[in-house]
Input
Amino acid sequence: MDAGRSRPIRFGVAVVLAFGLALLSSSCFVPTGCDTVLGISYHPVDTTIRVGESFHPVMNLTSCGGTKNLSPVLRYSADDTTVVQVDAIGGKITGRASGQTTAYVSADQYGIKAPVAVTVR
Output
């Protein structure tokens, strides 16, 4: 399996406000004195695996300038489940057949869906 790359994403106040209802309806609490920037990093961004091989994408979310780790419920999916098998809750993604697809790590309460390009050989 390729190590892949990490992709940090920063959302500013305007984007966070655009997620207003999602943030208000979630249990997200930004303590007094914190900024409203949501920090997001996930990896891999892309990976190549063999049929039968597995990997587990990772997503980290933070607030308060990276000092407060958030613990969202993560969900996992893929565009083509003939190429990969996905454990929607546990996150294990296993190659089923040669091909390419996009897998996703989602934190629905924050409106985030991060893509992972997957090639199975």
Q: What stands out?
A: The chain has one domain: 7-120.
